[in-house]
Amino acid sequence: MRFIFLLLSLCFAFHFGFGQRVCLTDTREVKSLSLTPELGLRDTLSDEVIMIPVVVHVLYNNSAQNISDAQVMSQLIVLNEDFRMQNSDAASVPDYFKSFAADTRIQFCLAKVDPQGRPTSGIVRRYTYREFFLGDDGMKYTAAGGDDTWDNRRYLNIWVCNLFGRSLGYSTLPGSQPDRDGVVINWDAFGTIGTARAPFNKGRTTTHEVAHWMGLKHIWGDQTCGSDDVDDTPQQETFNFNCPSFPHVSSCSPNTYGDMFMNFMDLTNDDCMKMFTQGQKAKMRSVFAINGARNNFLQSFACDSTNSTAGPIPDGGPLPEPEPEVTLSLKVYPNPFVQTLKIEATNDVNPAGKTVVILDIYGRIMYKSILAHPVTIIQPSNLQRGIYVLRVGEGKSALTFKIVKQ
Fold first, then answer.
1. Catalytic site residue 209?
2. Residue 396 confidence (pLDDT)
3. Active-site residue (options: 38, 48, 131, 209)
């Protein structure tokens, strides 16, 4: 059996220090996927503007997270400006790098037709019982409190939700599992108005993650003096935070002009990101070519409302009521803790038999056991100091707690 690698990009902006953008990658080995039937192959034209229908799944646990249509549209505007090199700040790219900058000739629209052929706004709103999501793709499944993926051969799926750990977002790469394929963005790092917070309020988190979705790597290649497999991005030692001054020379800079820190695939603040290169353009467009993983998008006509063949989606009436309270009730203490945690039932429901797991901010399981009594003491001795999630049970009945190891 052939194997492929999926690269999952996970971006964080911690409140500690200077609120820096941190983009981490998790390389996982998975079995090769069974490809879905092709929609009809053709190659791209050299001057073709590739149109990408987008569906935005807005998942909210409170009214603040239910971002407005205007905020969603502000993000679509940024995507189109950035990928078409129509962003006003492109003019401030240093003179040496201006000749590298590219109009990718890729554009985005909110979908006008849903997978069932019905008219749509391209925005789906769902109340979720989950206070936050981890980087485990739960937001991509209705059964897990999220919203199911629309056909990934025709739509770029973007989930906007509350991510744990001050995460900014993450993306899958071309060739990913179809029901997990897409981009996830935190509700306060999406768009340019409303809940978007500085210094990530220019929509560049989504630009960065959508470029990952089209196959781009980080500009430093995710290792010291690494390669992003693009010829015209200069080698740099590592990522850049905040917004350096030009020139910013590192140990492996090829010349005195240094890092291309204004590239969308570095980790600078939103107002410092300004350009893709010609080489990045070619790499992104290659995934839509005849043998590319996203070639089917050339046959997607979901941007055209005249292709709808069914009745409109019902408005749905008033906002749904929150899910009823779960029967099980627990308290976890002390919090913060040093060595031991006590998990105690606070009503007559016995939690015995429930699975308890502790996950780090990247969604990795750090501890797992089974509760055997109404009061259980656990000793997760392998945890480093920091913030974690403790989860008891699975699915809608699961209880989650933020815990701090001192």
1. yes
2. 63
3. 209
